[in-house]
Amino acid sequence: MIHYNPNTRTFNLLGSQSHYAMMVDGDGRLIHLAWGPTPNPLSGHNRFAPPGQSSFEFQGQRDELPAYGPISVHEVALKASFLKAPAALSAGEALYRPIRDVRLAYTGHEIEENAQLPTSSSSFRTPHSTLRISLTDSLQPLTVTLCYRLFPAHDIIERWCTLTNTGPDPIRIEKLAFAALHLPPGSNEVTTVHGAWGAEFTTQRHTLPVGSFNIGHRSVQTGHAFNPFFLANRPGHATETSGPVYFGALAFSGAWLLTFEHQHSGDMRVFGGYNPFDFELILQPGQTHTTPAFVCGVSGEGWGGASRRLHAFTRDAVLPNAAPRPVLYNSWEATYFALSHEGQAALARKAAAIGVELFVVDDGWFGGRRSPLSGLGDWTVSPEVFPNGLQPLIDEVHALGMQFGLWFEPEMVNPDSDLYRQHPDWVLHFPGRPRTEARMQLVLDYGRDEVIEYIFSALDALLSTHDIDFIKWDMNRNVTEPGSVTGKAIWRAHTAGVYRLMDRLRQKYPNLSLQSCSGGGGRVDLGILRRVDQVWTSDNTDALDRLGIQEGFSLAYPARIMEAWVTHEKNHQTGRVLDLSTRFDVAMRGALGIGSDLNALGDEELKEYASYIAFYKRFRHVVQDGDLYRLETLAEHGASTLLYVLPDQSEAVYSVAVHDHLIGRHRPPARLCGLNSTAVYTITDRHERAIAHLSGADLMAQGIPGDTYGPAGYSRTLHLKIVK
Question: What's this model's pTM, rounded to 2 decimal places?
Answer without folding.
Answer: 0.95
